[in-house]
Design brief:
Layout: E1 2-5, E2 11-14, H1 27-45, E3 55-58, E4 64-67, H2 70-76, H3 82-97, H4 102-121, H5 126-147, H6 159-168, H7 178-192, E5 193-194, E6 199-200, E7 205-211, E8 219-221, E9 223-226, E10 238-247, H8 267-290, E11 295-298, H9 304-312, E12 317-318, H10 323-333, E13 337-338, E14 350-360, E15 365-373, E16 379-385, H11 391-420
Parallel strand pairs: 7-16, 10-11, 10-13, 11-12
Antiparallel strand pairs: 1-2, 3-4, 5-6, 8-16, 9-15, 10-14, 14-15
Keywords: ATP-binding, Chaperone, Cytoplasm, Nucleotide-binding
Pfam families: Cpn60_TCP1
Family: Belongs to the TCP-1 chaperonin family.
Length: about 425
């Protein structure tokens, strides 16, 4: 290997074996590309179907993932060949459009490439092969339309959607409680579906997971979950018809931005300073009480004195809530984020039917549930499990699949009604 420079002074490397290397052309290049696609399909073929085997994947960081989901496997594979990257993109597109069948579409593409290789060896041009596949695709779609059946469903008859979702969960690790998970997925989709407009907004479905418990402990929450607890252990854990003050200002005394020094040389000065600080905290808590707030959610921390006052004034509070979660709470409850205590008014309070804190077993983990919000139909699927694995992704895929299926059924029902008219 030698270093050379071009006319602009930029260095580039010359390989000594450059003359020995050769570029593949014609049939050899086509066979090499087909072999790369077949290799990817061959890896996923053993994980397809109800008896498919799981794959153990190890990331460069040492994290181990065990899954038989095609999209997850291809996403974590280190692929260099361009045709193999196209297979990964194919699986990603299938996941984005449908949410299911990520393994089957790659295996089918590999089988088509395998059959195309035999035609290439017989001297048929690749364009002619592609045209033949397009004709076969049109014939297959027409046949599917002839044999397709329409399933009627409604809010009181969810069995067709539940059965469909159970079918997609058959090949996954969660098949031992697939009935419960299928019902959760269907209820989540219908909770955010607009039946009049015949549309489903899947962005309103939030999937959260927490290590611990069993998969059977998975639940559907009609609201938002926050991985926080009350700031004081003696605060109430259940608040009905909550009026929430959403704050981005801390319960702390103001700090000067310049260097300062306070000299306290007598007991009287210390008592005066303490009373002034207590009055400052007392004014903060009183402003929250005056506007009618029954719960305070703050982005920053509390001083111990302020936390003590909040508990004695019977005003539950939550601290260190992230900015993204704060925005979600504001949107769901119809509240406004308040940057200063002076701007707090009753109109800026959010409203929720129920706010409760839930603890999990002996692990002392606690989460805050904000349910029956005022301005949102957002739901959260809270998944439990023994370790961080792929169930969250699987449930999300099935939700997307059921949502798209529900949307297609709604569209089909609407078209049938128009035809009847």
């Amino acid at each position: 290997m030698a270093l050379a420079f071009d006319e602009f002074g930029r260095p580039f490397i010359l390989l000594r074996q450059q003359e020995e290397k050769s570029r593949l052309r014609g049939l050899d290049a086509q066979k090499a590309n087909v072999s790369a696609g077949k290799a990817v399909a061959r890896i996923l073929r053993t994980s397809l179907g109800p008896k498919g085997m799981d794959k153990m994947l190890q990331s460069p960081d040492g994290d181990v993932t065990i899954t038989n989901d095609g999209a997850t496997i291809l996403e974590q594979m280190d692929v260099d060949n361009q045709i193999a990257k196209l297979m990964v993109e194919l699986s990603r597109s299938q996941d984005y459009e449908i949410g299911d069948g990520t393994t089957g579409v790659v295996v089918m593409a590999g089988s088509l490439l395998e059959q195309a290789e035999k035609l290439l060896e017989r001297g048929i041009h690749p364009i002619r092969i592609a045209e033949g596949y397009e004709m076969a695709s049109r014939i297959a779609v027409e046949h599917l339309e002839r044999i397709a059946q329409k399933f009627e469903f409604g809010l009181n008859d969810l069995e067709p959607l539940v059965q469909t979702c159970m079918t997609t969960l058959n090949s996954k690790m969660v098949n031992r409680c697939k009935r419960r998970l299928a019902e959760i997925a269907v209820k989540a989709v219908l909770a955010v579906a607009d039946l009049e407009r015949k549309d489903v907004n899947l962005d309103l479905i939030k999937v959260e997971g927490k290590v611990g418990g069993r998969l059977e402990d998975t639940e559907l929450i009609y609201g938002i979950t926050v991985d926080k607890d009350m700031s004081h252990p003696q605060m109430p854990k259940r608040i009905e018809n909550a009026k929430i003050a959403i704050l981005t200002c801390p319960f702390e005394p103001p700090k000067p931005k310049t260097k300062h020094k306070v000299d306290i040389d007598t007991v009287e000065k210390f008592q005066t300073l303490r009373q002034q600080e207590q009055k400052y905290f007392d004014d903060m808590v009183q402003k929250c009480k005056d506007v009618g707030a029954t719960l305070v959610i703050c982005q920053w921390g509390f001083d111990d004195e302020a936390n003590h006052l909040l508990m004695h004034r019977n005003l539950p509070a939550v601290r260190w809530v992230g900015g993204v979660e704060l925005e979600l709470i504001a949107i769901a409850t119809g509240g406004r984020i308040v940057p200063r205590f002076q701007e707090l008014t009753p109109e800026k309070l959010g409203k929720a039917g129920l706010v409760r804190e839930k603890s999990f077993g002996t692990t002392q983990d606690r989460m805050l549930y904000i349910e029956h919000c005022a301005n949102s139909r957002a739901v959260t699927i809270f998944i439990r499990g023994g370790r961080i694995m792929f169930p969250c992704y699987i449930i999300k895929f099935k939700i997307i699949f059921v949502g798209l299926l529900c949307r297609e059924m709604l569209w089909a029902n609407g078209s049938a009604e128009e035809e009847n008219k």
